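Q: Please design a sequence for this.
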């Protein structure tokens, strides 16, 4: 009776329903996460069926009825939940109203909470991707040195390493690989927030560095990045033009670029 009670079925269904929205996620994110709700829902369903059909039959064959008296009367926790359940059933409409009110409050409050599908990695490393507006590698080197002077003034930065004309050797699994060009450089920093005492999170320090760098640069761009759980995306739109006639492809590409 305990296994076939509506409570057991309700627990299974509500947990499966909580994961079901992940089945409808679109794009690459949906393809990446779809295995999680599938496994959870199938596992819960199989577990309930086993508890309903297999476990009782095995218990009848393997176990014998206990001769000891039940110790439920002396169980303080059980007595507390029994009394609470009886009181809730006695004032059932009030119980339902309070539960529904809590649900409404949670739904309203959830809109004000920040959400992030893949949060930043909790590592004491941030890096800067620098793109120069000049193609001279010497000018890119001078630009990188200017940014290094800003970093040297920050007490939270323990050390930093720079690479001119190419990105650094891959120091984290999700960092993107840049094409070696004379107008690109990268700086990787190791941090210790306790040294400065000014910031409580790496995000706050990164925002501070971005403001300091933006106030110095005119023309070139430098983006301060935190390590992420997935490959960082800049939100760029890529337009691909294909065909057999190379001259026509070049014309169409120029036309698309002009309209954009």
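A: Design:
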């Amino acid at each position: 009776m305990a296994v076939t009670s509506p409570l057991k079925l309700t627990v299974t269904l509500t947990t499966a329903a909580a994961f079901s929205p992940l089945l409808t996620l679109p794009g690459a994110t949906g393809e990446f996460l779809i295995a999680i709700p599938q496994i959870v829902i199938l596992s819960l369903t199989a577990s309930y069926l086993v508890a309903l059909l297999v476990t009782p039959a095995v218990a009848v064959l393997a176990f014998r009825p206990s001769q000891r008296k039940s110790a439920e009367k002396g169980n303080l926790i059980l007595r507390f939940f029994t009394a609470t359940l009886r009181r809730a059933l006695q004032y059932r409409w009030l119980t339902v109203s309070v539960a529904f009110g809590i649900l409404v409050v949670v739904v309203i409050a959830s809109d004000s909470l920040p959400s992030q599908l893949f949060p930043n990695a909790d590592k004491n490393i941030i890096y800067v991707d620098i793109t120069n507006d000049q193609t001279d590698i010497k000018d890119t080197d001078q630009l990188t040195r200017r940014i290094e002077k800003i970093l040297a003034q920050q007490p939270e930065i323990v050390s930093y390493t720079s690479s001119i004309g190419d990105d650094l050797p891959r120091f984290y699994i999700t960092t993107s690989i840049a094409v070696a060009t004379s107008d690109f450089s990268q700086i990787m920093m190791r941090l210790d927030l306790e040294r400065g005492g000014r910031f409580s999170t790496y995000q706050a320090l990164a925002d501070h560095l971005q403001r300091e760098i933006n106030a110095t640069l005119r023309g070139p761009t430098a983006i301060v990045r935190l390590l992420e759980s997935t490959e960082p995306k800049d939100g760029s739109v890529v337009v691909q033009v294909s065909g057999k006639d190379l001259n026509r492809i070049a014309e169409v590409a120029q036309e698309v670029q002009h309209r954009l």
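Q: Thanks. Anything notable?
A: DSSP finds nine helices and four strands in the chain. Residues 35-62 form the longest helix (28 residues).
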